């Protein structure tokens, strides 16, 4: 896992308190369990393992929260993007039912951890709303509400008037509201979770890329530029930033660039009328429209692009026009930050959990809905490393299945945005 080139600073880097990185690994060592990757899933697993009395070392190629965990929009969403609970249970059986239960409780699990660990991360459990962008898509919202209510989730259907009051815009037709969701400063949360790990006894080495993981007798050798660690078990927690150390995982998903943006702070009047109760919003489009506010009243939004050429200028023009249409009270919006990161997309929009060898696990493919999932899935992966049986887990463990013609799929994937936009104009399949 080679260190990535440092991208443009996110608003979270600008507004989060400064932090000193931990020292890189420079001396050979031995450890019970090594976690590779300093994102939220790896940190959740490390904390869970350490609290159970295990010796854990975590290696991060850059700094804590450098990847998707610290660069995402910060929306805490307790459902997957395109995998309905009925389909999950149909395809995965009993483990699918346990995963659905984990999923519906995922946002609460994350916010409960924030409260228990007293992590300062601008947390707001003010609900998540998925408004229907067309009258036809209200049928999809109704179906989703029924499916989640059937499983005990507190989801409810809002009508068009309630949608307008919640968002401060009349561009949607109603939709599904889940009060367990919300939003956070994801970089502050990731750093705070790393501090909790350190306090629990986890050894963290930043700026320590892993070059190779190999088997030696009954142990694993984790090679870095300056040293090698001998470990009994390994969790590869690099998700969409997985590189050459696990080519079988790298070829099992498509990395998509996700663009995020922050406006200049809203005025007092704009803040009172735009998302007045401060929820998180992401609608039913494939070409998603999403919004939330941060602690300084910047409106955080973003988009996908088919091509990266001149991205910043194109995004500013495109999103400014979208925002003004959505919120007439926000004419000529200006942007203080534009940044991007990778999202791991799988062929069926379901995450993957993999056996990579004896006591060696990995995962990928959160499909843009990973934030809420990171904490409970980190716990599941930790338990799997400790020998939990599949019948006791809420995740289906499989061997990696590379996407056919992966290189072609990776280059063609951004063009799928045109197909999403076409589908957004048509009634959904129920």
Characterize the largest beta sheet: strand count, sense, and whether it forms a barrel: 9 strands, mixed
- In total, how many beta strands? 19
**β-strand amount:** 15-25%
Radius of gyration: 21 Å
- Count up the helices: 14
Measured distance between first and last alpha carbons: 41 Å
Mean pLDDT value? 93
Shape by Cα distribution: globular
Low-confidence stretches: 1-5
Going by helix content, strand content and strand pairing, the class is alpha/beta
Kindly state the percentage of residues in helix: 25-40%
Oligomer: single chain
What does this structure look like?
The chain is an alpha/beta fold. It has 14 helices and 19 strands. The chain has helices at 11-15, 40-51, 68-71, 85-104, 106-117, 137-150, 160-167, 186-199, 247-250, 268-273, 311-326, 371-385, 406-412, 416-424; strands spanning 29-36, 56-59, 75-76, 128-131, 156-158, 175-178, 182-183, 203-205, 212-216, 219-223, 228-236, 254-263, 280-282, 290-293, 299-303, 335-345, 352-357, 360-364, 397-398. Helix 2 packs parallel to helix 8, helix 2 crosses helix 12 (371-385) and helix 5 packs across helix 12. It starts with 10 loop residues before the first helix and ends in a 6-residue tail after the last helix.
């Amino acid at each position: 896992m080679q260190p990535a080139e440092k991208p443009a600073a996110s608003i979270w880097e600008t507004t989060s308190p400064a932090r000193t990185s931990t020292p890189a690994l420079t001396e050979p060592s031995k450890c019970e369990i090594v976690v590779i990757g300093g994102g939220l899933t790896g940190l959740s697993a490390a904390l869970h393992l350490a609290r159970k009395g295990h010796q854990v070392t975590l290696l991060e190629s850059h700094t804590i929260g450098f990847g998707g965990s610290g660069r995402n929009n910060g929306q805490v969403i307790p459902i997957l993007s395109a995998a309905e609970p009925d389909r999950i249970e149909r395809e995965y059986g009993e483990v699918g039912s346990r995963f659905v239960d984990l999923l519906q409780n995922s946002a609460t699990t994350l916010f409960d951890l924030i409260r228990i660990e007293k992590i300062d991360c601008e947390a707001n459990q003010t609900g998540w709303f998925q408004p229907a962008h067309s009258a036809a898509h209200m049928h999809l919202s109704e179906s989703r509400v029924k499916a989640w209510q059937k499983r005990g989730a507190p989801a409810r259907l809002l009508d068009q008037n309630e949608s307008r009051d919640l968002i401060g815009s009349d561009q949607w037709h109603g939709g599904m509201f889940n009060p367990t969701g919300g939003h956070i400063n994801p970089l502050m949360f990731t750093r705070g979770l790393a501090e909790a790990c350190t306090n629990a006894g986890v050894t963290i080495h930043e700026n320590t890329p892993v070059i190779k993981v190999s088997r030696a007798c009954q142990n694993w050798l984790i090679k870095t530029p300056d040293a090698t660690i001998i470990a009994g078990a390994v969790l590869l927690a690099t998700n969409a930033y997985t590189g050459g150390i696990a080519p079988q995982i790298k070829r099992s998903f498509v990395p998509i660039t996700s663009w995020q943006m922050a406006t200049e702070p809203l005025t007092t009047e704009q803040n009172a009328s735009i998302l007045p109760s401060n929820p998180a919003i992401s609608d039913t489009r494939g070409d998603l429209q999403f919004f939330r506010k941060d602690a300084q009243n910047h409106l955080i939004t973003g988009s996908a692009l088919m091509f990266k050429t001149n991205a910043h200028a194109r995004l500013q023009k495109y999103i400014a026009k979208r925002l003004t249409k959505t919120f007439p009270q926000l004419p000529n919006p200006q942007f203080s930050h534009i940044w991007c990161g990778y999202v791991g997309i799988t062929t069926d929009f379901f995450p993957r959990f993999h056996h990579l060898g004896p006591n060696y696990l990995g995962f990928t493919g959160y499909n843009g809905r990973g934030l809420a999932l990171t904490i409970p899935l980190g716990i599941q992966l930790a338990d799997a490393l400790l020998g939990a049986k599949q019948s006791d887990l809420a995740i289906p463990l499989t061997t990696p299945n590379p996407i056919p013609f992966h290189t072609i799929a990776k280059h063609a994937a951004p063009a799928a945005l045109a197909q999403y936009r076409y589908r957004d104009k048509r009634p959904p399949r129920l």
